Amino acid sequence: MRSATDQLEGLLGRAPESVSAVRPIGDGWEAEVEVLEIERIPETTSVMAGYRVTLDAEGELMSYERVRRYTRGQTDRRA
Known about the structure:
Blueprint: H1 2-12, E1 16-25, E2 28-38, E3 47-56, E4 61-71
Antiparallel strand pairs: 1-2, 2-3, 3-4
């Protein structure tokens, strides 16, 4: 995952803050990565983004897509 987050940072120009999920898929992995997109004051109003990242079996980044944007202070309404 460290290699994948480094690769994602290189593409986005922003460092991922956390990996919230990792799951095996076929011949690789899928991860959900949280990235700070817009820093604001107070910090709870900063804009975050969740990315779905697909990796091959060796951990190389194959694809990524932004799946949601939200403010840092927002709670997730999904159960």
